[in-house]
Amino acid sequence: MPKTKAAKKDHYTYSDLKDINKESEDDHYHFYGVVIDASFPYQSEKRYVVTCKVADPSSVTKGGKLNVVNVVFFSKSFEDLPIIQRVGDIIRVHRAKFQHYNDSKQLNVNMYYRSSWCLFIGNDNQAPLEPKVENEDGTSNYFSYTPYNFSGKSFTQEGHEQKILSNLKKWSKEYFSKNFVVQHEIKREELDQAIKDQKDFDLLTKITVIKDHDQYSNLVTFNDTTGQTWTANLFKRKFPHLKVNDVLRIKSCSAKENNNLILSAHSNILKFFSFSKIEKHLKSKISSNTHIKTVVTKLTTPSHKKMEVTALKKLFFNPKKTEKLFRSQFCVLKVDNKSIEDYVGAYDGKKWHSMKGKKKAPAGSELKWNIKLIVTDYKNQDDDKAYIVHLDDNSFFKDVKPENWHKTNEHKKAEKVFNQLTSHRANYVDAVLERDKKNYYIRHTQFK
C-alpha cells in the first residue's frame, strides 16, 4: 500500500473557491472542494478529459444559493483521471490554473504539467465506491483522512489538511441535508422534447431490476421522478457498484422512443450520501415497483392464446418458413401517418385508393384501415430496433369504423383509441401476425 509522505519541498496553501479569480501564467491554485457533479473520464479529439463541479462554504451566497465552480481535468491517459461517481465526495487539487470560459469561472487541472488530485469520502460512515488502496488495518475510520484514490503512485498530506477535511465534511453534511444541491425536479415534457430532438438529458431515478445480460454488462431497469420506466445495458466495469433500490442521477444520457437509455463515453451515474436531502426525497418520491404495462388487445381465437410468443427480431430476420401465423407482443411507438384521414383507404382487392377529399369508396372497393404501426418488442427490451406492422383489419377496433372516419364524433373516438394504442410507456399489444412475404399484418386480434 502506498505510504503517506511528509512534504519535503512543497508546502501547500489551500484557497477558498471564491478567492480563486486571478488569471495569470504564474499562478497555480491548490484547493479542496465538495463534488456536486461529474462526468466519466472520456477521450476527446486530442486528450482524455473529466469535467466536474465543486463547491465549498465560500460558494454559498447570502441568499443561500450555491455558486459552483467548473473544474476540468486533462491528461494523456485515462488512468490519470479521477473516476467520481458520488455527489458529496471531496476532491483535493494541486496546481490548477484559473481561466474564464463562456463567462464562467473554470479551473483547469493539467496532468501534463505536475497537477495532481486526491479523492476523499464525503461521509465517514459510508465506504468509498472504488478505492485505490485497501483498508489494511481494518479500522472503521481508515478513510476519514486517507484518500481512497489519487493520481500518481503516492500522495503527500500535511497535518493542517485534517482540519480542512473535517470542516468541509461538517459543512457539506449540514448543507446537503437542508438543500437539494442538484436539480430535484425534471419535467416530462422536457424529456419528451429531448428524445424527439435527439439531445442529451439528465434523469433522477431508482433502480428496480438488475439482470445479468452477459459477462460484460447488466440490463438495468429504472423508475424516474416523472413516473416513467427506462432500461439500459450498462458495462459492469464502468458501473460496478449499482444495486436494486439505489437512487441515482444519470448524467448526460439520451434515449430511443422505447425508453431504452443510451449512455455515451462521458455519461455518468452518480450516487448520493444517505444524509442528503435529495437522497431522502427520491427514495420517497419514486416507486420501487417496476411499472407493469397494460395489454390493450385480446386474441379472438381461443387456440391462438396457446401460441408461443415470438420475438420481433426473429420474425423479421429468421422466421419459420413453414408457418404463416405468429403471436407477438409489442409496444406501438407511433403511427406512421399524419392525420386520422390517412388511417383509412379504399381497397379494391388489388390496390389501395386514397380517400383524400372523398366520403365514399370508389366503385368496386371497400373502406378499410390502412395503418402502419412503428413498434418495438415488449418482452425483449434489449432489442432496441423498431419494426413496421400493418393494420388493415376492420374488426380490430370494435368501436371505431373506417366507413365513419369523416364524421366529427368519430374523429374524437378515433383520437382517444389511438392515444391508448400509442401510449407505449403504459400499454402494449398482444397480437396474431400474418406473414405476407416480408410484411406482417394483424389478424384475429381486437382492441379492448
Automatic annotation (TrEMBL):
It is found in: Chromosome, Telomere. Keywords: Chromosome, DNA-binding, Telomere. GO terms for molecular function: G-rich strand telomeric DNA binding; telomerase inhibitor activity. GO terms for biological process: regulation of telomere maintenance via telomerase; telomere capping. Its main location: nucleus. Residues 14-173 form the Telomeric single stranded DNA binding POT1/Cdc13 domain. GO terms for cellular component: nuclear telomere cap complex. The keyword DNA-binding applies. Pfam families: POT1, TEBP_OB2-like. This is Telomeric single stranded DNA binding POT1/Cdc13 domain-containing protein. It comes from Euplotes crassus.
